[in-house]
Amino acid sequence: MTGEPNTTTSNRTITATGTGTAEAPPDLLTISVGVECRRDSVGAAYADAGTTSAAVSGALRRHGVADTDIRTSGLNVRPEFVWRDGGGQQVTGYVTSSVLTVRLRQVSTASAVIAAAVDAGGDDVRLNGLELGFADESAVASLAREAAWQDAAAKAEQFASLASARLGAVMSVAEHPDAQGPVPVARIQRAATSEAISVEAGHASINASVTVVWELLA
Q1: CATH number at residue 101
Q2: Is the pLDDT of residue 5 over 50?
Q3: Three-state SS at 111
Q4: pLDDT tens digits, residue range 119-164?
Q5: To the nearest 5 percent, what fractions of the chain are helix, strand and coil?
Q6: Which residues contact 16 (CB under 8 A, 6 or more apart)?
Q7: Which residues lie across from 73 on neighbouring strands?
Q8: Into how many domains does the chain fold?
């Protein structure tokens, strides 16, 4: 744990920043599945992307993923260009892409579900990343905040003792948001069900950071 405590003797307060972390087995895995189809025409690229996306969604549903846990975003259709000497920039094909954000609530079966989804989409599927977390993180977050508070209080008490003073009432408390992002994984071009990548859940963590201002008593 780290922090940047400081004292200000002119107004008789002491400020300390504490950090804390709490861990627990995750019960939610969020994956990002990309669909990307390159074809000679716009219509073929768009139609095949829809077919692939439907195949992936169907595989997810067959493995128990609810409709409310599958979200489509980022639909994009664009031409691809190549530069040819004497001919300038020319269109070589079209790409349709979209992203499925999927929440898996049975982490223990995630490897099989991911493999089935990728296998259903074939070479047009990309596994962009995953994030382990909690369906309800309030209990774990509470433990992280408690650890952050204790860290700040210990620092403040040490600095008060060094200043031959003691802590008084709490003047203010400010919590800082956790900026932790998703855990990245390598992009996958193709993976058959028999080649499933194992997802090891381990423990997921929540971080908390708090800055507290105490009155400094003589």
Answers
A1: 3.30.70.2970
A2: no
A3: helix
A4: 999 999 999 988 989 999 999 999 999 999 999 999 999 999 999 9
A5: 30, 45, 25
A6: 3, 5, 6, 152, 153, 155, 156, 159, 211, 212, 214
A7: 99
A8: 2
